[in-house]
Amino acid sequence: MAESSDAPPAVDIAAQIAILTAQAQENSNRLMALEEENTTLRRENRTLQERLSAVEVTPQQPRDPRFRLLKRGHLLDLLTDKGKKTVAKRDNHVEEPKEPTPERVINVITGGSEISGISYSAARRHARVSVNPETCSSQPPAGDYTDQVISFVDNEATALINPHHDALVISLLVANCKIKRILVDNGSSTNVLFLNAIKEMKIDESNIRRCATVLVGFSGEQKFTIGDIALPVYAGGINLNVNFAVLDSPSAYNMILGRPWIHKMRAVPSTFHQVVRFPTKWGIKEIKGEQSISRECYRNTLRAKPATL
Predict the structure, then answer these.
(1) pLDDT in tens, 91-140
(2) What φ, ψ does residue 189 adopt, rounded to 5°?
(3) Cα 297 from Cα 254, distance rounded (Å)
(4) I need a surface site. Which of 10, 52, 259, 272 has the fewest CB within 10 A?
(5) Which helix H or strand E contains 85, and what residues bound it?
(6) Distance (Å, whole) CA 82 – CA 45
(7) Residue 161, φ and ψ in degrees, nearest 5
(8) What's the count of helices (H) and strands (E) in the chain, helices before strands?
(9) Exposed/middle/buried for 218, CB within 10 Å: 0-12, 13-18, 19+?
(10) In terms of pTM, does the model score above 0.70?
(11) Nearest one of 212, 235, 208 to 223, comparing CA atoms
């Protein structure tokens, strides 16, 4: 009987096995290449993480191109959570502002406190609160606290002229003017700016708010101010708007920074160490006293005729 012509052709099993084996080998090679590439990427990622952990990334343009890619938002998915936090910390970094260039240099009083009051009755109410704890607020003053520690070392004063009883006299930038002969006095309940200094600063006297208050000296002497004025005071990256009582009186100082400025800055002045330190977002900053100028001011005060405060 004749064989039917419709029968399927014979299948070469050996050839099929060889083809499948070759395909499997090709897939295996591709998989090995992918694994090697993945291992290389992981190794580079670990190296990048170590460099990010060891070096503080600044906003300056880095030399490594991978840092530039990170800055543009690339490769973030390859970083661990620690690496992502490091990059986020870099992006949120704020540099301390530079001190503005001044336009010109301008070569122990109580009363006038905005909190304690400017009258006897207001001061009496303030004193009554201090002896009644139940009426005092238990909430701390509002502000961003940094938990920084302000400290002094006893041998810091060895570089000064010793022994000394010098007052703390500094220089600061006020209303874009470099003001020298500024007395930092934690015995003063108000900030004082003398009229002669305002004139030297070329500030129009019309900016003075004419609202006289009384300043009381150590022995009860009284002196009325001619008003008050608010001016920006720059110190250690902090530009603070400060209210001053304006006093038309001769003085060896141009300005007195009392407790209102000291407390607002959370500053700690030390006459012994001749420095005032205060916390900022950039760490503890300090302003050193000018000991020779402090002695000159003291000498000028003794030379001047006694004046009624």
Answers:
(1) 555 677 777 788 777 664 444 445 555 555 655 554 555 445 455 555 55
(2) -90, 10
(3) 10
(4) 10
(5) helix 81-91
(6) 12
(7) -80, 110
(8) 7, 12
(9) exposed
(10) no
(11) 212
Cβ neighbour number for residue 191 with a 10 Å cutoff: 26
Amino acid at 278: F
Tally Cβ neighbours within 10 Å of residue 167. 19
Please state, in angstroms and rounded to a whole number, the distance separating the CA atoms of residues 168 and 290.
7
What the block records as the tokens of 139 is 């909430």
Which three-class secondary structure state does DSSP give residue 194?
strand
- Enter the DSSP assignment of 110: B
Name residue, tokens 């001044």: 102
Nearest to 240 by CA among 278, 212, 290, 208: 278
The tokens for 307 are 């004046």
Q: How far is CA 74 from CA 42, 66, 79, 178, 220, in A?
A: 16, 9, 10, 46, 70
Per-residue pLDDT tens over the stretch 23-38: 888 888 888 888 888 8
Q: What is the DSSP string of 10-75?
A: PP-HHHHHHHHHHHHHHHHHHHHHHHHHHHHHHHHHHHHHHHHHHS---SS--SSHHHHHHHTT-S
In whole angstroms, give the CA distance from residue 71 to residue 306. Answer: 65
